[in-house]
Amino acid sequence: MIVFDKVTKIYPDGTIALEGVSLIIEPKEFVSIVGHSGAGKTTLVKMLLSEEKPSSGKVFYESLNVNHLKKHEIHHFRRKIGTVFQDFKLLPNKTVYENIAFAMEMSGRCDDEICADVPHVLNLVDLTNKSYNFPHELSGGEKQRVAIARAIVNQPDIIVADEPTGNLDPINTNEIIQILKKINDLGTTIILTTHNKGVIDSLGKRVITMEKGKVVRDDKTGKYVL
Ligand code: ADP
């Protein structure tokens, strides 16, 4: 379970990015966080990843107070969370296979595991035939599917996808959302931030709406109403 308890974030320049945000996200939920640019969505995600600390309030993952973790503990904690971003963040000089294998090497996984698991996740995102291509040889949707494969290969509890469809056309957007849904069905919690109304309305999952640093709606099978 993820708990945000009265989280306020004021950046050093005085910007109030989050104000008294309280939320509970249960294991295996698929939660979309929506809101205009500047509403605080990315800041909220950064709190969970322990990339920023709250100015007041607390963030828990299970019994861990995320913001009290020491440096070496943060490293370990972040392995529980796979991340996917709008700009893919693939390594340009590595093939699709190597991008995913590298994420496993960084987590200390052995060659046998890598040989077994990389093909498995590539199959899951339907990219087996692109294993030996480089990122610049892929479409945007394919790049994002690689990023998702990389995010899930170390079997995280949670996937945080921050505007993953921001650079994609509607067909690719839909594909990415279907893959996230499939991963969710396999038991991974998904936290998705998005501007995309069509995506949200067709999902039929929980939608949290943010406005000026506050949660203004929390709908169980929500619609995008901004
Ligand atoms: P969203 O993801 O919804 O677009 P953000 O969390 O990125 O919103 O931003 C929320 C607010 O915090 C905005 O006003 C933004 O300008 C501000 N902000 C974000 N990051 C920083 C930072 N590092 N320093 C100062 N202000 C920031």
Strand and helix map with partners:
Elements: E1 2-10, E2 16-25, E3 30-34, H1 41-48, E4 56-61, E5 64-65, H2 71-78, E6 81-85, H3 96-106, H4 111-124, H5 140-152, E7 158-162, H6 170-185, E8 189-194, H7 197-203, E9 206-211, E10 214-219
Helix pairs in contact: 3-4, 3-5, 4-5, 5-6
The chain binds adenosine-5'-diphosphate.
Structural write-up:
- The chain has 226 residues and is α/β, with parallel strands linked by helices.
- It has a single domain, classed as Rossmann fold.
- It has 7 helices and 10 strands.
- It has helices at 41-48, 71-78, 96-106, 111-124, 140-152, 170-185, 197-203, and strands at residues 2-10, 16-25, 30-34, 56-61, 64-65, 81-85, 158-162, 189-194, 206-211, 214-219.
- Strand 9 (206-211) and strand 10 (214-219) form a beta hairpin.
- Helix 3 (96-106) packs across helix 4, helix 3 (96-106) runs parallel beside helix 5 (140-152) and helix 4 packs across helix 5 (140-152).
- It is globular and about 45 Å long.
- The mean pLDDT is 94.
- Bound molecules: adenosine-5'-diphosphate.
- Adenosine-5'-diphosphate is lined by residues 11, 13, 15, 17, 35, 37-43.
